[in-house]
Amino acid sequence: MKAYKNSRKWSGRLGLLLAASLFSAQPVLAQDDAPLTPDQQLARDIYRDVVAFRTARGQQQVPAMVAYLVDRFKQAGFSDDDIQVTDYDSEGEKTQGLMVTYRAKPGSTAKPIVLLGHMDVVDALAKDWVRPPFTLVEEDGYFFGRATLDNKYGITNLTATFLRLKAEGWQPSRDLVLVFSGDEESGMISTRAQAKYVADNIDPEFILNSDAGGVALAEDDTPVAFRVQSAEKTFATFELTITNPGGHSSRPRSDNAIYELATALGKIAAYQFPVRATELTRSYFATAGKLTPGELGQAMLRFAADPSDAPAIATLRANPEAVGTLGTTCIATMLQAGHAENALPQSATATVNCRIFPGEGAAATEAKLKQVIGNDAVAFKLITNVTESPESVLRDDVQAALRYSLDKRYPGMTILPYMESGGTDGMHYRTLGYDTVAISGAAMKASDMFAHGLNERLPVASFYGGLDHWYWILKKLAE
Length: 479
Ligand SMILES: [Zn+2]
What we know:
Residues 1-31 have low confidence and may be disordered. The chain is α/β, with parallel strands linked by helices. It has 15 helices and 19 strands. The longest helix has 16 residues, at 152-167. 34% of the residues lie in helices and 22% in strands. The chain is globular and about 80 Å long. It has helices at 14-18, 38-51, 62-75, 152-167, 189-202, 257-270, 279-291, 294-305, 310-317, 320-326, 362-373, 396-409, 426-430, 460-465, 469-478; strands at residues 83-90, 93-102, 113-118, 137-139, 142-144, 176-181, 206-209, 214-217, 223-232, 234-243, 247-248, 329-337, 343-344, 347-356, 379-382, 415-420, 436-438, 443-445, 457-459. The relative contact order is 0.20. β1 (83-90) and β2 (93-102) form a beta hairpin. The structure holds zinc ion. Residues 118, 150-151, 184, 211 line the site of zinc ion.
């Protein structure tokens, strides 16, 4: 799971929308010099403190961050019974998960809501960064630091919202449960265990994730749409290997591991998986098409109306931002072969990474690739711990709460459910049958996306602008 975290989430389908600025709301206001309110100051303090924990794999810092958060929740009045810390062994690394329950008022009968975030981060090396990665630096209208977006913004936002509601003496009409994982960016051992625990012990009505989605801004900061992550493609990586007796390169055999593998890869390159369309992807294209100018937007609209429209499919397939929404993709990503320049190769291995359309399954995808290659000598090895998950529904109550919250910031903003190319905690809950959508409060433009990369940042205006996001959503869903 580790290797696939680069191209996902925050960079994905957003690009489609960013050329457009048809949405006629006011731009996000730049941070003015007004003093921070107590709620803003509290959130900023938590943000500063959690960014300082280097919760990357190998650093063993998640427990320290958990202890810090536990302290915050206790100070705010959450009792020992409301707080649950669990140890996990994530492939040899000690990590922890944290669950905090905001208890419903007596007599409440509605099922709980679970809220997700992850405390771990992709590591960052100080020597490669312009600023220290584990120090929150506010500069030029941005907060810089590892996980200022992914996902310590979400952790901060959810935590600060709980503390704020508690300070107001608010009592929800149903249990609200924060579930923070400790190895989302690596083994997802804590995520899997928490998802099982949630299913067995909490059985929520639905789940909201802070780790994807959010407001898409155009490059001029004009808000374009609110993205709701409603599905994730299945991630599966295969190693394809040809072995051969080899020999001296001066005495070539008729068969050759490199040639055979190259032939197999050529067939994969030429193959296109069937076009798939679901209610989610069609409505995505119908909405995104209106927000996307030119030929691409027209193709989206035509595909939404008729998923068999061949010219529209050709246009969408040619666009890297759109092709993943059309169906399964499998692509060669690594290659290794031979052992000496003057020896026949004894083996040749290619790594093929698939993003499988929900419902198709890894086994069927493997079978299809084998059929396409048509050479039984190619050995397949699945090297991913695969989690297949169905699409989630954007429930009416969640949509109404989101609308209520968004209208305070961006009246009338388009809400745009989409399918992710893969990789958040959410899939582990979807696979257990829980509707899970990711609805971050962040507002970002494509050029500000540095999650997992160097100099990750979040606009200061987005940080403060989103602080009421969960506050209104939770009030609406649990008033
Ligand atoms: Zn994340």
